[in-house]
Amino acid sequence: MGEQIDMDVPNCSECGALSHDGLTCRERFHALLAMEGQDPELASRHFLTVACYNLQHPSQFAPEAIDGLRISLKGFLDGTMAIEEIRRRTSAEYDGQKKVLRPAWRQQVILNIWKMTTADVYRPFQPRGTADRVKQWAESILLEIP
Ligand SMILES: [Zn+2]
After folding, report:
1. Which of 16, 45, 81, 88 gives 113 a disulfide partner, CB atoms 3.0 to 4.6 angstroms apart?
2. Cβ neighbours around 131 below 10 Å, total
3. What is the pLDDT of residues 18-41, one digit of tens each?
């Protein structure tokens, strides 16, 4: 955690996560989703995992989609928004009227260094506590983009 720049280790060009494990953030994200099958607590936090990953890798999304995601994450964490409401909001806002994804030619990766990233959350040899780490990840993101 903390400043995640090290000249000897490759890092994610979007969130700055160091790749000591040789994985990309996308690979860690998919591995976390795969772990949900064995971990009901982690599965119950599926929305947090997806929201955190997308908020830290926003280049492919329209800015309004990222704003909506941040608002939903905050509402989910402080208990003012149930997951059903988040799903309703998302489908109402994006039922073909607005574009969630940016067209490829408008995608621009901007490096933003975060305190906690996929590299801190995904620990394949320490699966216990993954659900707790996902929650900490979400809380740390909201502290950085309130
Ligand atoms: Zn990343």
Report:
1. 16
2. 21
3. 999 999 999 999 999 999 999 999
The answer to the question of residue 8 being in a domain is no
Ligand 1 midpoint to CA 14 (Å): 5
Per residue in 78-108, pLDDT tens? 999 998 888 888 776 666 556 788 888 888 8
Inside any domain, residue 17: no
Residues 144 and 53: beta-carbon distance below 8 Å: no
Distance 26 CA to ligand 1 centre (A): 7
Gap between the Cα atoms of 45 and 67, Å rounded: 20
Asked, for residue 3, whether it belongs to a domain, the answer is no
Tell me if 84 is assigned to some domain.
Answer: yes
CA 52 – ligand 1 centroid, Å: 10
- CA–centroid distance, 75 to ligand 1, in Å, is 24
101, β-bridge pairs: 61
Q: What is the largest CA-CA distance in the chain?
A: 46
